[in-house]
Design brief:
single chain, alpha+beta, Heat Shock Protein 90, five-stranded mixed beta sheet, 52% helix, rod-shaped
Length: 413
């Protein structure tokens, strides 16, 4: 899928760039071609208006000036055609061509020109642009060679093709690099989704297996009353599966709804204090103590229930993974612009390479899947809550303790 997406990205980029280059080069080419044609036609009218016989000396006006420094001389010749009883009489009156008098080539050119329906046009076989003027007693014909004009356009087209090929090759490389950069978030999301489905299936498989096994035992026994132990197993695993499904639904709603929650003024100090009081018995039963130092009147814009859920997740995680006989510490302080909530415990250090993965769904530093390890969704939910509150959460771990630090923007005003 990702490979096809990258290929599609490159194809779209190259198609757009090719279309833009084609439009730009075509516009420039046709503009220059029209300019060259106009200059050639101006020269044609200039030599047609000159009545003197110039032989091979040429006309001072038989030149095209491009810019301030480039002068292009174009071969030309003029002919006066006089009708007579046997057909017509041609008189070459000037030009830069030699040996045109009474030549078969000149006769063919004049016949072709006189039979043209338009007074101005092109004789393609001889690469000449012509102008025909009726002067009453005779017809004035002027010819300008198009070979240089065509050579200029061919050279320009060749240069454009080389430039376009080089530009497309360079842009192809850039597009490939951009495709890797642009699809990296998609690839990461796709990989996380596949991992999410795999881990969710694994987590749901265990309680379902226990439930089905105990249900089959209950159906197969003939004793009355049926063993309560099997029923307790079913209830326990069903509660565990219900908790997992609720956590998955929390993440799914956060993904689908986006930042639609209405945030109001909330005392983060009160929320943290309520959670600390609620978790003191939990810490005591786990053989740990809970210490907290909370700055008063820390106000933020947020959702009280979500902030309470955030604090509960961090405290539950700290108590669960703290070393027996140690203390769990919660601190809330205020800076000039931010509120900082820290939850720390003493336990086994988390390797530095794993810290950035702690907030991924179903990720656990401990690969075991016992009851103590939970589902690996708590910290992912905590990050979702922080994102909704425009805050940030990070983890730090040393040999002494592990800390989760949440920073919130303070309420303004």
């Amino acid at each position: 899928m990702i490979r096809k997406l990258r290929l599609k990205f490159v194809l779209i980029c190259m198609s757009l760039v090719t279309a833009i280059l084609a439009v730009v080069f075509s516009s420039v080419f046709f503009a220059i071609r029209q300019n060259v044609r106009d200059l050639s036609r101006q020269l044609l009218y200039q030599v047609a208006q000159n009545e003197s016989s110039l032989g091979t000396g040429g006309l001072p006006s038989a030149q095209i000036t491009i810019g301030d420094h480039h002068v292009v001389l174009l071969p030309y010749f003029t002919v006066n055609v006089y009708p007579n009883t046997s057909g017509y009489l041609a008189d070459v009156t000037g030009g830069t061509y030699a040996n045109l008098d009474d030549s078969e080539t000149l006769t063919a050119i004049l016949q072709d020109c006189l039979h043209q329906p338009q007074n101005e046009g092109v004789i393609q076989d001889y690469h000449l642009r012509y102008l025909r003027q009726d002067r009453g007693f005779y017809t004035r014909l002027a010819f300008v060679d198009m070979s240089m004009e065509q050579a200029i356009l061919r050279e320009m087209m060749g240069s454009y093709l080389i430039i376009a090929a080089g530009a497309l090759a360079l842009l192809l490389g850039v597009s490939i690099l951009l495709s890797w950069w642009a699809t990296r978030p998609v690839e990461k999301a796709w990989r996380q989704q596949r991992q999410f489905l795999s881990d969710a299936s694994h987590e749901l498989k265990t309680p379902l297996t226990v439930i089905l096994s105990n249900a089959e035992l209950l159906e197969g026994t003939a004793l009355e009353p049926r063993p309560a132990r099997w029923a307790d197993n079913i209830h326990s695993e069903a509660r565990q599966m219900k908790a997992l499904v609720e956590e998955m639904l929390t993440l799914a709603r956060a993904d689908n709804m986006g930042p639609t929650a209405v945030l109001t003024e909330v005392s983060l100090s009160d929320v943290a204090a309520d959670c600390a009081l609620a978790f003191e018995p939990v810490a005591f039963e786990s053989g740990k103590s809970l210490d907290y130092q909370l700055t008063e009147d820390v106000l933020v814009l947020g959702d009280r229930d979500k902030l309470r859920q955030l604090a509960s997740i961090l405290l539950d995680n700290a108590i669960k993974y703290g070393r027996d006989g140690t203390s769990v510490r919660m601190a809330l302080r205020k800076t000039d612009r931010q509120a900082v909530l820290t939850v720390a415990n003493e336990g086994d250090p988390i390797p530095a390479e794993q810290l950035s993965h702690l907030f991924e769904r179903f990720y656990r530093a401990d690969a075991s899947r016992g009851e103590k390890s939970g589902f690996g969704l708590g910290l992912a939910i905590a990050k979702t809550i922080m994102d909704a509150h425009k805050g940030a959460i990070r983890a730090e771990s040393s040999a002494r303790e592990t800390r989760f630090i949440c920073t919130f923007p303070l309420k303004k005003g």
